[in-house]
Amino acid sequence: QVQVVESGGDTVQAGGSLRLSCAASGSIVSINAMGWYRRFPGNERELVARITSGGSTNYADSVKGRFTISRDKTQNTMYLEMNSLKPEDTGVYYCNADVFTKYGSSLRSWGQGTQVTVSS
Prior knowledge:
Elements: E1 2-7, E2 11-13, E3 18-26, E4 28-39, E5 45-51, E6 57-59, E7 67-72, E8 77-82, E9 91-101, E10 106-110, E11 114-119
Parallel strand pairs: 2-11
Antiparallel strand pairs: 1-3, 3-8, 4-5, 4-9, 5-6, 7-8, 9-10, 9-11
């Protein structure tokens, strides 16, 4: 079993900052890539940022220059530093992890999401 838990969502004013955290735990041998996605009301989840085990990153165009993804491989944790927040950043933010488990399987685990609300 693998658990992924997000934290750090909050309500902030436009121009403010937040730091989201994601922790993966359970029967993990290794984690390949981890990513942040967000869901706007009525829409599907879209990629916000992703980071590989080697540290390579990619970002959605809408967040480039404002958001920074990072990872602590020793702790199986990942972070999303969000600056210059805009009302259109409002949504539920989800973390996922591509995990190789102790049972020899590979799977993508998702967290339950954390709400980010940016007021104008």
